[in-house]
Amino acid sequence: MKNKRKTREKKPLSFAIYVMGAFLLTAAMTVLITAAAIAIVWNVGYAGAPSDEEIFAAVLISGAIALVLSIILGLYFAIGIARPVGRIADTASAIKEGNLSARTGLGGDDQLGQLGQRFDEMADAIERDRDLERQLIGDVAHELRTPLMAIQATVEAIQDGVFEADEEHLNTISFETRRLGRLVEALLHLNRLENGTAEVKRNLVNLSSVVNGLSTTHEALLESSGIMFFTDVDPNVMIIGDQDLISQAVANLLSNAVRYTPENGMVSIELTRENGYAKISVRDTGVGISQEDMKKVFSRFWRADVARQSVDGGLGIGLALVKEVVDQHFGDVSVSSTLGEGSTFVMRIPLAPEDHAKPMPSARRNTSRRRQERAARKEQEKLRKIEERQVKARRKAREAGAGLSATQELKLFGLRVPLPATRQQEVRQQEVRQQEVRQQEVHTRNKEDDTHE
Hints:
single chain, Helix Hairpins, Heat Shock Protein 90, 4 domains, two-stranded antiparallel ribbon, 12% strand
């Protein structure tokens, strides 16, 4: 270690000597040439010029003065240059030995200061990539371990005779195996996109048809989940890109919205033209995302804590894949959200040149009437069921009232409801009649007993 330190200190010193020597040589040559030129001019242009010895002495004196000044200036500049260069060299050696937190700490507006700043930025990027790599390895191990442990536990239980090899447990193994396969495939797909090895087609794509098709596909899923779904799609929005990748990105946004939106919530998708871009907005009234977590929302394997606790989330790669697909199409994706209220994801992709040249449509709202009517019918159906329950409750109250005393109360849906005054009078009259009937029956039985005796 000591030898390494000596080696590192030697490089800046040799560099300083080299700089100082070059400076001294240049300064000395300049002084000597200048002094010689002055002596020649003096000797030629003036009568009674000094002798050669005087000229030589003047040159020596001026050369000595220039040499001293050159040494001082050379040392000043050499040390000023060698110090930051040496610091950069030491930092590079520390990073090479594994200390990725080492930094030069240089600054300033000169070139060496800017070089130090760029070096530190490079070191920051290297350290950040190292941390992301470690996190990625941990996340992949965690995501792979979950289905593998489920498969292993089920298989061992079947082997030990705890579980039977029936359809239920075989379906569990099949489900976890497919989930594992989807995770590996998604990772490979994302890796190919990031490395630039995936084939990205550049064809003319009707984005309106893509969004409408995905909306129809997700409509049944949304209805079964009790979520209202609305669309607003401008017709014939054209882009240049890969239709399969774009479809996957939009589907991921819709699936993410459905996954984190509770029953009776709302999901909407909107496609418009805006400033030369096709703009896709997916809104939901789900769990939302905190301001702190929005910085990580497009990272691999990220899922909000609130989503982990309340929702059986996906693979955690969908939004990272969305960002990579949008980047491949020279667009951008953003998110705005309020925790507990919902989120809005916005994709922006450049329009095709032909589409960009077309005038913007003035008022072409294409909200599906059929979906709106279906939502209205659902509301009417809910109201009808509520009215039916109320009618049944009133009927039960009337039927139950005949067997209750005037001082009794009804229990409806956990509430204690007193009988009205008119109903209390009817109940009293029924009780009197029932008492008279019971007394008559007792009197008749007594007579029959006397006859037998």
